[in-house]
Amino acid sequence: MSNLKTRREFLKSTGKVAVGVAAYSALNPVIGALSEGKAPEHPFPYVKLDPAKAEERAHNSFYSKGGCCAAVADALIGELADVVGSPFDGIPIDLFRIGAAGYFNGSLCGSLGGAVHAIGLVCPIDDAKKLMGELFAWYRKAEFPYYQPKEMKVEKTVSNSINCLDSVGKFMEANDLKMGDENRLERCACLSADVARKTVELLNEHFGL
Question: In angstroms, rounded to a whole number, what is the distance separating the alpha carbons of residues 33 and 86?
Fold first, then answer.
């Protein structure tokens, strides 16, 4: 095959790809923006998620992704990446590992951190603040954990706080547990599931889905 013929076929095939990309980009503004080197517009597109699937994924991801913040982020942002694709699939879930153990300082519960970042991606700031307020108010009064795929013989506790130190501290004190104990880890995995589910319910309601 001559070099000229090879070049013609290459140009022909790449031309078809270019046309295809252009057509798809016209239908998907996010892909179009990325292909032009532009940042996708905020807020990102939200689609209805399944609360039950979110809680199960968060529970599993607590162990596989590195703690509560990454667990909830994976259940929300990771699921949107699977369903929607771009721009969510460009967000590495590993970056949310930093939120474990109240950002390693016992401050804001990492599960809430993962949740509010997901909310912030898909909502304008005023809407995000409203949903965050509702989520935090619920968390303060929630009797964790609700979700228990493995029935736990533990005393549930209400934190009256959004801080990790208060939330997990009250639970450990009530159940005479240490941080490394299996029931403490499972409790936080289940709490992550609870937060993921509640966040999906709030988002679905907010968007009328």
Answer: 11
Query: Where do the H-state alpha helices sit in the chain?
Result: 3-27, 29-35, 51-61, 68-73, 79-83, 100-101, 110-122, 125-141, 164-175, 182-206
Output the six-digit token pair for 37.
Answer: 């080197």
Q: Are 79 and 54 in contact (CB under 8 A)?
A: yes
Contact 69, 97 (CB under 8 A): yes
What whole-number distance in Å separates Cα of residue 33 and Cα of residue 142?
41
Can you give the pLDDT at residue 37? 65
pLDDT at 19: 45
Band (22; pLDDT cuts 50, 70, 90):
very low
Give residues with Cβ within 8 angstroms of 128, minimum separation 6. 116, 119, 120
Report CA dihedral (20, 78, 110, 158) to the nearest 10 degrees: 130
Gyration radius (Cα) of the chain, Å = 21
pLDDT score at 16:
45
- Sign, CA dihedral 39-200-126-118, equals negative
Assign 157 to helix, strand or coil: strand
Domain ranges of the chain: 3-35, 51-206
